[in-house]
Amino acid sequence: KNKRLLLGRPLVDYAIKAAIDSDVFGLIVVSSDDNDILELAYSYFQTNMIQPHKRQSIICRDNTPVKVAIRYVIQSYRMGEEICLLQPTNPLITPQQIGDAYKLFKEKNPDYLIGMCKGKDIGFHFFGKLSFLKDYEQLWDMTGLNWVSHEMKGIDIDTEKDWRRAEELLKGRNEG
Q1: What are the φ and ψ backbone dihedral angles of 133, each rounded to 5 degrees?
Q2: Which of 112, 113, 124, 114 is nearest to 156 (CA)?
Q3: Per residue in 55-110, pLDDT tens?
Q4: Among candidate residues 175, 108, 119, 98, the one with its CA nearest the CA of residue 147
Q5: pTM
Q6: CA separation (Å) from 173 to 34, 40, 86?
């Protein structure tokens, strides 16, 4: 679904463009085993921020936990202490929302920030301690962590109904 066209653009393109335009990130890694998605990432390569990353197909299955993909990427690159996971299933994410979340992250200085919309995870996560991410068993276990949630507008596309709702919301935003 990440390369399915949503109002004429691949779903993943919304996340890539918002991340670039946010001016928050020094490096944006687009990790996939899909050549079409990697080609899209290469089309943004001239920004000097995008790094297409070919993941092994064994860790790109629908049932592969996202923490496996995160761990694989952080083991492949030199990263600072702060990283962000921006899943492509929320096409409503905006550069402003990313910037606001990062500002809150810096002010509160938590181990972890999660983007929520009406109490639901929308695939946006800031992590403050890389060492935390390297501990596979601890990842997603927030016991004892200093974490905050950040209310954001968005949707997490999981179903066809979610897809249709995202189309409606994007059309409304573009028309408004």
Answers
A1: -70, -30
A2: 124
A3: 888 887 878 777 777 778 877 877 777 888 898 999 999 999 999 999 999 999 88
A4: 108
A5: 0.87
A6: 29, 24, 21
